[in-house]
Amino acid sequence: MKEILEINNLSKSFEIESGKLLVLDGINMTVKNGEILCIVGPSGCGKSTLLSQIAGFDGPDTGYIKLGKNKISKPGLNRVMVFQDLNQLFPWKTVLENVVFPLKVNKIGNSKHERLEIAQRYLSMVKLEDFYNYYSHKLSGGMKQRVAIARALAINPEILLMDEPFGSLDIQTRTNLQNMLIDIWRKTKVTVIFVTHDIQEAILLSNRIIVMGKSPGNIKKVINNELPRPRNIIDGEFSMLYKEVYNLMEV
Ligand SMILES: Nc1ncnc2c1ncn2[C@@H]1O[C@H](COP(=O)(O)OP(=O)(O)OP(=O)(O)O)[C@@H](O)[C@H]1O
Ligand SMILES: [Mg+2]
């Protein structure tokens, strides 16, 4: 797989009361076109900070991130983020309107009709075709996240950034959404960078796993995950990989 994103010697610190807090230190990594890259690491190691840098929400102190040939300096339609927060939908808009809205704002699609078609296509992909007219207060947490995923994908980004998107869901809903994400990834071939605390989730989803350490955040190891799909947590090879990642994780 060709590399589409490159992070070169990236460091990031924040000003805090007691001075400067170095959060990311000398990060070097690449992302391959069409892969699911999972990033795991202990709380506070800088996973969300790293994702924000890739999204272009904030810039680095040193180093750079390149998507294709271009350095990332601001947010762009080629990178879209799905967050953990179950309240990331517009509560005054219906499910369908939530997906159509960013298309309209960003002038994607040539007509209202085309935008509706795009939105409906992605809402079918997340199996919400029967809920177009629902407002978010009537949706379960899993349904809200499915809308957020459809809304992100409808823009047709090169990279889907996901910051613990299933972290607030119960285990059964989480499993359903993990399987749904794999189906969608197969259909769309979108590149996914997926942050999670959960080692099992990382092994289920990923082509590669980046294990981060903390204080300051750094990359400890990049692991290829070549387990055949569908993956099963009770398989011996699954537990071997689990142990490898677990042993690298600082708590
Ligand atoms: N805007 C900010 N100002 C000051 N400190 C910040 C800011 N954003 C993040 N930090 C600090 O940077 C460190 C890394 O935070 P970050 O949210 O990236 O970690 P994380 O790995 O995503 O953690 P979690 O797994 O709990 O979500 C933490 O110590 C956090 O307090
Ligand atoms: Mg985080």
CATH C-level label of the largest domain: Alpha Beta
Rg over C-alpha atoms, rounded to the nearest angstrom: 18 Å
Structural class estimated from helices and strands: alpha/beta
Task: Indicate the proportion of strand residues.
Answer: 25-35%
Question: Can you summarize this structure?
Answer:
Helices cover 34% and strands 27% of the residues.
Question: What does it look like?
Answer:
- There is one protein chain.
- Helix 5 links the parallel strand 7 (159-163) and strand 8.
- The protein has two domains: 3-78 and 158-248, Rossmann fold (3-Layer(aba) Sandwich), CATH 3.40.50.300; 91-156, no CATH class.
- The chain contains seven helices and ten strands.
- The model has no long low-confidence stretch (mean pLDDT 97).
- It is globular and about 50 Å long.
- The chain starts with a strand and ends with a helix.
- The strands form two sheets. A six-stranded mixed β-sheet has the order 6-7-8-3-9-10, sandwiched between helices. It has a four-stranded antiparallel β-sheet with strand order 2-1-4-5, with helices on one face.
- The longest helix has 18 residues, at 171-188.
- The chain has 251 residues and is an alpha/beta fold.
- Adenosine-5'-triphosphate is lined by residues 14, 16, 21, 23, 41, 43-49, 197.
- Magnesium ion (MG) binds at residues 47-48, 163.
